[in-house]
Design a protein that fits this description.
This protein is mostly helical. The protein contains 14 helices and 6 strands. Helices cover about 50% and strands about 5% of the residues.
């Protein structure tokens, strides 16, 4: 009988599983091929045996390295932004304290996966941000001017994590005030004195462009449409109920 310890892979349901001496009482089973193909891995489905961080990270590392899948691909923009907010310090640019530069995001995304859980999470997060130009533009926009300067600040991640609209935390009065400030740009033409609700719907469907003025209108339209009670009030004040028109006087009334 040989005294040599074998570290050869153990086959579990047709897939290789790794057994480490002194750590595993049972082989760890990797996700099935169907899980590999989803592009968004569910690590809760991995059979880890005793639940501890060593086993979780081992299973994670093996899964990521084998599949090449990005676990953030199935997340919403809000969830991706929340993760960036929670890991802000790992991306912060030493040359721009308090901010993440686009250069830092690109450098992180270009790094090779190493099998280190924390490092690989940040690499995949950076790659996913670059794969979502609208989200990246939102993160890069100055929260006051709306202009892009190549820097992502903590307040930008907060805005994106809370729905991606700088008006999302504002009161109805403030939203009405923003509409009033941009009234001429939101209405259909120079001669009309009302904003058409259908026009707001069209504007809300536009992708963010990085142009501060255009994106501001997109944010306003999206925020108004996300507030049905506010929209109803604006539609019904100083015009026929439900006629689909928002008059200048209605915005003046609501902002006070």
């Amino acid at each position: 009988m040989s005294n040599t310890l074998s570290l050869n892979p153990i086959l579990v349901d047709g897939m290789a599983a790794v057994r480490r001496p002194g750590l595993d009482s049972a082989p760890q089973q990797l996700p099935s091929p169907s899980e590999h193909s989803t592009g968004s891995l569910n690590f809760d489905s991995i059979k880890l045996g005793p639940r501890n961080n060593i086993k979780f990270h081992e299973a994670y590392n093996a899964t990521v390295m084998l599949s090449g899948a990005n676990q953030f691909s199935g997340k919403t923009d809000k969830e991706v932004a929340q993760t960036l907010r929670n890991n802000f310090d790992a991306f912060e640019d030493p040359k721009n304290p308090g901010a993440i530069s686009q250069k830092m995001i690109r450098n992180m995304a270009n790094s090779q996966l190493s099998g280190n859980y924390a490092d690989d999470q940040n690499i995949m997060l950076a790659r996913e941000i670059l794969n979502r130009p609208d989200l990246n533009k939102l993160l890069d926009q100055d929260s006051v001017t709306g202009k892009q300067d190549g820097l992502i600040r903590k307040e930008n991640t907060e805005i994106a994590a809370n729905g991606g609209n700088p008006l999302s935390g504002k009161s109805d009065q403030k939203v009405a005030e923003e509409m009033l400030k941009n009234f001429d740009k939101l209405k259909d033409d120079y001669w009309t004195s009302s904003i058409k609700v259908d026009t707001l719907k069209d504007i809300s469907k536009r992708s963010l462009t990085g142009n501060a003025d255009k994106d501001r209108l997109t944010h306003i339209a999206r925020e108004v449409l996300s507030r049905p009670e506010l929209l109803k009030k604006l539609d019904n004040i100083y015009s026929k109920d439900g006629d689909g028109w928002i008059r200048w006087e209605a915005l003046e009334y609501m902002k006070d």
